[in-house]
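Anyone have tokens for alphaalpha-trehalose-phosphate synthase [udp-forming] 7-RELATED? Sequence:
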Amino acid sequence: MMSRSYTNLLDLASGNFPAMGQPRERKRLPRVMTVPGVISELDDDVANSVASDVPSSVVQDRIIIVGNQLPVKAKRRPDNKGWSFSWDEDSLLLQLKDGLPEEMEVLYVGSLGADIDVSEQDDVSQVLLDRFKCVPAFLPPDILSKYYHGFCKQYLWPLFHYMLPISGNHGGRFDRSLWEAYVAANKIFSQRVIEVINPEDDYVWIHDYHLMVLPTFLRRRFNRLRMGFFLHSPFPSSEIYRTLPVREEILKALLNSDLIGFHTFDYARHFLSCCSRMLGLEYQSKRGYIGLEYYGRTVGIKIMPVGIHMGQIQSVLKLADKDWRVGELKQQFEGKTILLGVDDMDIFKGINLKLLAMEQLLKQHPKWQGRAILVQITNPARGRGRDLEEVQAEIQESCRRINDAFRLPGYEPVIFIDRPVSLSERSAYFTIAECVVVAAVRDGMNLTPYEYIVCRQGVSGSESSSEPSDPKKSMLVVSEFIGCSPSLSGAIRVNPWNIEATAEAMNEAISMADSEKQLRHEKHYRYVSTHDVAYWSRSFYQDMERTCKDHFRRRCWGIGLSFGFRVVALDPNFKKLNIDQIESAYIKSKNRAILLDYDGTVMPQTTINKTPTQEVISIINTLCSDVKNTVFVVSGRGRDSLGTWFAPCQKTWNCCGTWVLHEVVCG
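Reply: yep, here.
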């Protein structure tokens, strides 16, 4: 239900915000604004909803997908004259399009993974807009470095994965200049969105922790914009998040979205706990939907784990080079049992813990010596820093030690692949692996188990796939700290920090009966094949539609400065206080009841000394001097304190915590 109250009645009465008339009919704006918009500075005093007077002949909905990187690959041409571009088929932002309505136009806003010279940026922008419907955000090198490698990777990423900067050498300490670069980068993204947005027709879907303050920039410009945000990383518990010096700024910025999505219930619960403890907001759950009441707006909370792109993987499984690679791997590992790990080179992926568990497996169960092989594929690191270098050195040392201890002629227990591996080659390894092991100590989602399940299922017509009569089977050992763990009920869940337990789980997985492996595989495949990336994006979009359905029925005011900005949404029947009308009604009335809340109205909430001033006593006495007035001071404070404070007032009475000030008997 929409609130009809206001956060500050004094501001409401004095009119310190843009006036708002009756709800008007929606205008149609052009798909690309004829004049590029420039966002107002965050510290402007007034923020109005912007619209264009130019009508548009196109009325269907459009969605603008905003992410840190565009789903496009950029490559310099061999002649060094210009650039060539192609879709990045592995990009989630591109894949999610399959779940959106077919008639919906999709526009992408993000940065390019290439350094484009300033003189080429206009031409590149035009090519990307015309051919790919992409709008690039070009970040200056100094901002890019501090924004991405600084605040995002050295501060937010570790903190959201539960790593506190205990010392200067452990994690990254908060640096105000990095935060300012983060804000500046988000502002550049917002400017690119504003240049192309049709605020009354378009949806905006923002992705991941790189752009958490972007909702405030856009909401400040367009009060009624339909906007969703999805966090692809974990959201930490309140005890971790509260250490963030800009914790309230980020929370308030996210709450300027209409719908906030998380992969798991735990991540959503942590976010709601932070909103409760730091902002005093409580959520409500009705008919399966979770919402936060925020200044008259209901901010929806969506819990939906992302899936994989089934079509992409199935098409790869049909490729001839994949079948050739499978045959080659089967010959190479003939008679061996393959355990597979596929991870990014990252301090939170638990790669070394996995290696230690493999070492323990070979020690505890000597029967696997010479038979079990762990193939660890490690994708290139996205971040950088001393922590990452230390982890890389530790992994290399573990691989060397394990191979030296258990090497036999024609057998090495650990094969470490430290290079980019294509989806085709990766699927070949999935096809021949008996078990996939994920030992991440913290991960937002991790889709490796999903890919493995689909590859083990295979597709008809592939030479490497089993005969239709052959049972499909797979086994998973997954960390309980990753986002996909709750959805894989047939997997063996482990605490990766417990090396012995992880080793036993790996032994159980590869020793399990084929019939049990088949049952677990079938259960997993039913889930993975039906809850793919299209299902995820369709579900999020439908919830965004539902959450935003009343946007153009409400009266909205933008209030607050900087990241304290928020939109106050009121019912269409709400009427702003009119001083002249109140004065007229006051004069005409014969009896008046005046209720004053003590803490927060009579006395400021932040005042330490709660004793009323002489000015307050004088004003109350003036009100009480009129025989038509009955003045109530409402407070939960004790009788003794109030009796002492209001002793100078004329004839005061106390009744159930409410003080009545006038010549009346408390009835």
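Confidence is low (pLDDT under 50) at residues 1-58, 662-667.
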